[in-house]
Amino acid sequence: MIPLKDIKCVLLDMDGTLLDKYFDDYFWEHLVPEKYAEKHKITFGKAKEELFSKYKAHEGTLNWTDIDFWSKELHLDIAVLKEQIKHLIEVHPHVEDFLKMLKRHRKKVYMVTNAHDKVLDLKLKKTEIGRYFDRCITSFELGYPKEMIAFWQKLEKVIHFDKEKTLFIDDTEEILKTAKAYGIKYLLLKTRANSKREDKPTNSFPILRDFKELLKNL
Ligand SMILES: [Mg+2]
After folding, report:
1. CATH at residue 177
2. Where does 51-210 show beta strands of DSSP type E?
3. Are 42 and 142 in the same domain?
4. Using one digit for the tens of pLDDT, what is the confidence trace for 141-163?
5. 6 in catalytic set
């Protein structure tokens, strides 16, 4: 149970946590391989194989979510492709109710995302969640991905949060581990990040299946 009344600051990841990761998974696992296969005149299977090893090589780095990097690397216009499937961008259930509740109780609410600025803009235009945040901070702005301690050190300088009174929710365990090492007291792992995919079992962090679990908590 998270004691929301003791919490002053809430840090929220975007993809998979607030928004359905189906969009991102579909994009990188289907649309990009399809376009890459067409471009290089190879099969979809071969394209997936080549791409997945490229993805793996850049996981957990700023390149991973840098769409300009991928546009160059793959010779595809990633921003244009994302725009083409923006109808698949969806907010997870009860996210807006949760954000409204936080604002009503005058919590500081920040989005902390590894997403690229262009992707953040696209997603905030497509959804209505942007209005609830005191600020949205990207790892590009700070120069490090959330997987690195340096991200959190810089973040604390920018927004001055009290680690003992802060809740952070993310769907990536690796990132929560870093936040824990940095000393953020309250951590939740968002599961059902992709609404169409089963989660791998885990017990490393307390889990949040649905934001409605936090609604009755304040
Ligand atoms: Mg995420």
Report:
1. 3.40.50.1000
2. 108-113, 135-138, 166-170, 186-190, 207-208
3. no
4. 999 999 999 999 999 999 999 99
5. yes
